[in-house]
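User: Structure tokens for both sequences below?

Assistant:
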Amino acid sequence: MKLIHKLSVGLLALALSGLTANACFVQIRIACPNDSPAAGVEVCIEGSDKGCAVTDEFGIVLIHVPALGTYTATVTKSTLPAGATLNPLKQNIKVETDETTYAEFIIGGDFCSAKPGPGPGPCWLTGGGTIGKEKGVPDISFGGVVYPACSPKAAGGGNWNVVDHFANLHFQGHTIIVDSCSGVATKSPKVNVNIIDFHGLGILSGIGGNSDATIAVTFVGRAVDNLESGGGSDLLYLQVFDAGGTFATVMQIGTSAADPAVISTGNLQIHTTGCNK
């Protein structure tokens, strides 16, 4: 694993436990292996504020949960599209950060067979997980979305969050621009690229006892979607620079875009649904 820490500030702390738990969201996507989404599907999370919500045209639903912990998400079978199958209908989701946690249900059946799937073109990214572990605590927690539903305008191009539990730093990336989609075809979801390169603006803040002031930063990133479910195979590179004039590297995951870090848990998933509209 290639993982470089910058601005380390003393002993390892349970930074995650020091974060507020008032803004925990779980984003779930329901789609075919060829990445065709399922809209109008009800998803319920036990213990969430509203209980249930319905997927949008991109197969995505966002549900708020009150605190960190493990939740059970259940798809209401009767709301699946005609011809769609899903087994199991339940999935345990571990929420380890007050940023968004991502999960996906892959459906099958005749509904998916009738869908041609997206063709070549641009791509977008969803993902979340951890890298490394020391004394039971991940070195890095990450999660976010880049070009949600393939739109550079939605949510300012997306958001990408990283918590470095060793350095007690929280990076928040926004105003994201996708530079390229490349690589090879994958089967789940069925897309013909597996690498996304992007850059943008953001902020970096000290957390969990780190008194470093919030600073403006720029960043470059690369995600490689190699295999489902991702842990132990998908790759992530991120380099964050001080935008205040020094342009010094203040956070880095992986050695370079050519030598990214292997994620330990979670998933990085590249999509092309909606990109040819």
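Moving on to the next sequence.
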Amino acid sequence: MSDTQEKKQFVEDLTDQADDFSRWYLEVVRKAQLADYTPVRGSMVIRPYGYGIWEHMQRLLDRRIKATGHENAYFPLLIPESLLQLEADHVEGFAPECAWVTEGGREKLEERYAIRPTSEAIIGHLYSRWIESYRDLPVLLNQWCNVMRWEKVTRPFLRTSEFLWQEGHTAHATEPEAREEVLRMLEVYREFIETELAIPVYAGKKSDAERFAGADETYTVEGLMRDGKALQCGTSHHLGQHFAKVFDITYQDEQGKRQHVWQTSWGMTTRMIGALIMVHGDDQGLRLPPNVAPVQAVVVPIWRKDEDKAAVRAFVDRVKQMVGDVVRLKIDDRDQYSPGWKYNEYEMRGVPLRLEVGPKDVASQAVMTVRRDTRAKESVPLAALATRLPALLADIQASLFQQAEEFRSQNTTLAGSKAEVIAHFEADRRGFVAAPWDGSASYEAEVKEKTGATLRCVPFDLSRFGSLERPGHRVALFARSY
């Protein structure tokens, strides 16, 4: 088989989602050149195309975080074991996932260092030094960094030993201020995920069994993947005063009395790249929302005769001049690949728009646009490109969200009892199941034991679940998850 044939097969051969969704996912990650495996257990390399998605996500989320008054900082990668051990619940929750540094150079360390699984301990220690007076509050910090959790079973982006994220850590004078912060940041996540990633989510509160280790309360935004499994897309934690008391984080109030601060933490990770793949992808590969696509439109020049080449290339240059500052544009004029091969490649990589330019387009002074989401074609005059392309991209963004929302709606089932919840999953049905929950851990544990489904959240918005409300019960969403 020739090199060209191998590359063509590489682009075209993709497992159908319905046949094996997990295999389809792994093939898309590799063939779209998002990530690859490394010799380091459970760790991946994020390739430039995948990292380009993350950069756009980071930029758009960081802007929102700063708009709420937060500043970025950076804290150490290594956390002394003594600090981590101070908060018993926290340690118990993360101990199985910790990776430890025991030697430095050729010397054995007197105390082990944990490679940060999360930063509450080190930040709590530092806040105890920085906060003295009510005038120092609130402290609103965020950091973009990597963390490590020694996972037993890994999958690129969804669950890896090392991953990238942002983690916010705040300190407040009062409990209402901290609670307001927790819910504000959860709403930031919801709005970001739905607006920029085109993924509909349910926002709500986690059960006690599912909350973050050491937190008073955990809130979450939950998305539904195309295989019917739920994915926790972001969390916001009300830490109360537990860490403040453990690390002695106090301030002098306006009456001169010492008070413990109230804290929050919240985070979102590169797992959201996995969510993009699984929510929007199809049997041809990725379908990227334009807002975070590294390439929003790709130009494919087409010619059969050498005498057409110069005119087509000149026209492509004019296209670039017209829209290069309006959309993220790539021109693929490689001679060694056919236009058909390029079409397959960019469908695999999820580029929202393809622009075809051949001799007929040059003659008509227009560009043939092809949408990745619907494959609809439209000839757009050169003079109208600068306004039409952004409009098409906005429509693709909205269309992807609508399709994902319709899928979630079709796969959210209402159940009147615990028995109906269990029956749903035992019948190997998928999606979210909403049901009245009496708040007991035993109800939750029985569903999990019998079906593998967990309580994802108690949703805030009950507009579609009103028929399930019962005295002494709350509506809860159950699903199998990643």
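User: Anything stand out in the second?

Assistant: The first strand starts at residue 35 and ends at 37.
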